[in-house]
TrEMBL record:
Keywords recorded for this protein, A-Z: Coiled coil, Membrane, Transmembrane, Transmembrane helix
Organism field: Rhizoclosmatium globosum
Name by which UniProt lists this protein: G-protein coupled receptors family 3 profile domain-containing protein
Coiled coil location: 256-283
Segments traversing the membrane: 6-27, 48-65, 77-99, 120-145, 157-182, 203-223, 235-255
Signal peptide span: none
């Protein structure tokens, strides 16, 4: 495949990813309007939305660099800085978003490993920007210290491999725990009571992690075989990066649909419970009025409050499961959508 064809394909994918990013912004605003009476910037600019928005923008930027890589052939460091910057934004946001999405599942399966990952996440996102620093130093060396420019090329490659390895290892950990969680549901007698959001996050998470592993596989091929068609390998890498964005976007919509379905289910169960309680009270009144009485005639007035979900035995409780202890993590993620 020649360079012009790759550029055309990159441009088409860039437009589709950019349109997906715009649509994501629109959907986020609509969800905020539906969920809250008063819409504020804070209700829209949640951590999940901002991280996913940056993933969409960085993926679009990677396509843009691929299209414009021939614009400044006299100084490839400029293109390298832009590419490393967009890749670093993608990797760091993806790491933070993955932890925010999957922390509850990992805490459920292994609290000790979750603690280690939580501490590591204080540092890992910053390590993703090491290649950017190396590229900037390489540009400075090209302009003023040409004799050491080659050293910064090697440093940039090493830093890129380190950042990619961190993302791949973290991704593999999430993938393993998500698969273990789904397998545990097959043998859990209480699986019908497990919050449906956990299952949704796990299923979409597996798809995301497979896509990101494939993206870094093509990245590894670029460094393993520099004589290969680098532009084509970068196109494959960016295609899977776009797939990651769209899967995470679909996860946001799926969780929103889950919330709507649970609200409707809870409302239906509450109405059924109220109707059952009303019928029960009417039956008591009829029994009292028809009971034999010696001299005193009286009427029975029953006062009752609206039943709550906790007071109704047959009312389904969405979080009556053995993972209630991690519901705070799930609630925090819901509030960030």
């Amino acid at each position: 495949m020649d360079s012009s064809t790759i550029s055309y394909i990159s441009f088409a994918l860039m437009i589709s990813t950019f349109c997906g990013t715009i649509w994501f912004i629109v959907i986020s605003i609509l969800h905020s309007q539906q969920a809250k009476k008063q819409q504020t910037f804070k209700s829209i600019a949640t951590s999940y939305n901002l991280q996913l928005l940056l993933i969409g923008i960085s993926t679009t930027g990677m396509y843009l660099v691929n299209v414009c890589c021939t614009c400044v052939p006299e100084n490839p460091w400029i293109i390298q800085i832009l590419e490393d910057m967009f890749v670093a934004i993608f990797e760091s946001c993806y790491l933070m978003l993955s932890w925010g999405r999957g922390s509850s599942v990992i805490k459920f399966k292994s609290p000790k490993i979750a603690f280690v990952i939580e501490q590591a996440m204080q540092v890992f996102p910053f390590l993703c920007f090491l290649p950017v620093i190396a590229s900037i130093l390489g540009l400075v060396a090209r302009l003023h210290f040409e004799e050491i420019e080659g050293s910064f090329i090697t440093v940039e490659i090493i830093f890129s491999i380190i950042a990619g390895t961190i993302a791949v290892l973290m991704d593999a950990v999430y993938l393993i725990f998500f698969i273990l969680f789904l397998q545990s549901l097959r043998f859990d007698s209480h699986r019908n009571h497990i919050d449906i959001d956990f299952v949704t996050i796990t299923r979409y998470g597996i798809c995301v992690h497979i896509a990101i592993l494939l993206a870094f596989l093509f990245m590894a091929l670029i460094y393993a075989n520099p004589n290969s068609n680098v532009e084509l390998l970068k196109l494959f890498r960016q295609t899977f990066a776009s797939l990651v964005f769209f899967i995470l976007f679909a996860l946001k919509i799926a969780l929103r649909n889950n919330a709507i379905a649970k609200e409707k289910e809870a409302e239906l169960q509450m109405n059924e419970a109220k109707e059952a309680l009303r019928t029960q009270n009417e039956s008591k009144v009829v029994n009292v009025e028809t009971a034999p009485s010696a001299k005193t005639t009286f009427t029975l007035t029953t006062k009752s409050k609206s039943p709550s979900a906790a007071s109704i035995p047959n009312c389904k409780r969405w979080r009556s499961s053995n993972i209630d202890i991690f519901s705070d993590d799930l609630d925090q993620m819901r509030s960030n959508l």
